[in-house]
Structure formats: structure tokens, C-alpha cells
């Protein structure tokens, strides 16, 4: 209760006049609306932290929206009600129903998204023609799984999204025999590709730098560096964090980094972000000082099982063998559920951009002199790909697995 009240107060200040933020609708009284992309982000990262500890993760929002659409189109009764309710929040907040032309990214925009959504069913399952049409109209691959070929073809499809995703699914995920596996496998995968507009990272400035995993543990990570220059940086006082926006070449999409002031501030910040519309942050007043920038090189493969992880959104029955009603697939009520629902993404960030490798590019190192302003992402942070209409992806970096030898830092060991 105390926590809820203080977050409430915090946000009342946050959304006060003069901040340049778009106020959200109130919820319930005097409470800003929760924002679907950041609520989804928070729920997923929370679910993951209890299982494994990757370097970071990235969630691609469009492909998940499509997959929720598949779950809805497949289910009936209270199973469908749960999904519809979760999606109502989604359409209200992210404006997926918004087809205004100005909101669509122009074809000339060089920010590229590749995504794949597939629904795999036992080959003996009778599928209504209406259902098959509907699923295919959504751009989703509907496939009866055959033991001799389907896993290879799925692997090929995933490798077109990213070669690093090729082997993320296994034959055990697919249902081959209806009697033994009355289940549906839904898989979502995505990656993004873009080149920096003017980030000015240079290959020759790449170094191993300290990274604070938390207040006590520290390791070294490969780090990008860019010399001082004018940036899109803003201190977000109410979030107790600093935001850096890096523009992408020939695109309106921005790479957003939100670095908490405190080394272990990410967890609390992600809680508060549930009430923040990331798109509105693009409009905050920027500090026009010159900053140099350090960002870790990232190479994150995310493989999250969402079937255990959507309870937060109220989506539960569709995964439950006793309660699931997937009768819209066949037109009959029968034992059938979604057993596995993985979300797969690959996110690689380097001197050139995102999921883009071309070390041939030679850039001139410009030196504009020293600065006292630094943006060093040397402890866990939140990141997003966002334009003023849409949140494409959210992620976090820095939940690193630390080698016990690294705990005190390599510098200290070598000096002893
Ligand atoms: C896989 O098996 C099915 C029948 O079980 C057969 O019709 C199909 O041709 C086989 N595909 C390949 C690639 O061997
Ligand atoms: C969905 O549920 C409703 C109400 O229980 C039922 O009338 C309808 O036939 C069901 N649809 C399918 C495709 O099973």
C-alpha cells in the first residue's frame, strides 16, 4: 500500500504540467493508465528472472500481438474471454486498431523488422477451412507437424529471422500425434535491423570496460565508445534515470536507453515504467550539452517460454489442459491446449547499428575536445525501439551471469 501510494504521488508529479509529457487517462481516480508495452515487458522480465539469468533480453511487441490474435481466433467461451480482455487493454494503449496513414511507417523507412509467427498442430487434427483462412490472413503460418520434415523447415524459417535462432526449437516442441499430444504449438520470432544515423561509435575505440552487475558484483564487458558530441539526452527526474536517444539512419525509429541513477535501480524503474508511455518520452526537453557515450556491445538471443508467463495478463486457461477451449480450430469441443508458446528474438548491437555487421565502413574519428558530461551505461539498463506512434521492442541489459573470478574485478587481481 505504501509503495502504491508513493508511486502514485511520484506519477502525479511526473504528469504535472510543464513536463512536456502526454498525460495518460486516469486509472482509477487520479491514477495514470498502465501502458501495455511496459506492463508486458515487466511481467515477462519478472517471469524470466526467477528461472535463468541471461545477459539481457528483448521482447518484440508486434509479433506477440499477432500471436495473441491467434490465441483469440482459436479459442471459445471463457478461454477466449480472458484473451479478449487482455487484448482490449492492448488495442486501447498501443493503438493497433489505428490505421491512419500517418501512423504507418513509410516504406522508405530503413528500420527493418523481420518476424515469424507459426501455429503447429497435430496432422490428424481436423481444421475448419474458415479457421485456416483467418489464421493465414493474419500472416501466420499454419502447419500440421510431420516427424520427418517439419522441424527442419521450422528451423529454416527461423534462420531467415536470424541465424542465431535456427536451433532454438526442438522436435519435442511439436505435436505429431493427436491422441498423445492434444496440443498446439505457437511460436513467435523477430529481429530488427538498422544503422546508426550519427552515433559515431568507432571500432578502434572498443574496449573491455567495467560493468556493475549490482552494488557488489562487477565484471568486464566489451564496450562501444563515442567521443563527446551533442546528444539527445534527458534526465528523467521522476524516474531517477537518464535517457539517451540514438537516431537510426533514414528512419523515424529511435533506439532508447534509460539508465537508472542507481546501480541497482532497474527493478524499481521497470515498475514505474508500467505507467509511462515510452512514445511520450521522445518529446521531453533534451539537454543540449556535449556527452561522450559508452554502451556495451550486445548480442542477446532471447528464448522465453510464455505459456508459463502470461498469468499476469489474465491469460491462463488456453494453456491449461483441463480448462482450455480451443474449439474454434475444429468446430468441436475436444481436449486441446497450447502447451508451448516461445518468444524468440535476436538483438545485436555494435558500432554500425542493430543486427548489422559491416566492418568495412571507415569513419573519420572527429575529436571535439573534452567534456565533463558522460553517458556510461555501466550498470543494468532498460532499452526500447520506439517512434512517436509505436513501441517496436523493449528490453533490458545487464542481468549478467558473473564468473566468480570476476567478482572483485580483473583490475584488482592483476595488481596483487
Ligand atoms: C514425410 O512423411 C509423409 C507421410 O508420413 C510423406 O507424405 C511425406 O512425403 C514425407 N516427407 C518427406 C520430406 O520425406
Ligand atoms: C462457442 O461457444 C458457444 C457458447 O458456448 C457455442 O454456442 C458455439 O457453438 C461455440 N463455437 C464453437 C466453434 O465451438
UniProtKB/TrEMBL annotation:
SMART domains, alphabetized: SERPIN (SM00093)
Signal peptide (from-to): 1-20
A Pfam family this chain is assigned to: Serpin
Database matches in InterPro entries: Serpin_dom, Serpin_fam, Serpin_sf, Serpin_sf_1, Serpin_sf_2
Keyword annotations: Protease inhibitor, Serine protease inhibitor, Signal
Serpin domain: residues covered: 38-390
A GO molecular-function descriptor: serine-type endopeptidase inhibitor activity
Lineage: superkingdom: Eukaryota
An annotated GO cellular component: extracellular space
Family in the record: Belongs to the serpin family.
UniProt-recorded name of the protein: Ovalbumin-like
Gene this chain is encoded by: LOC108039717
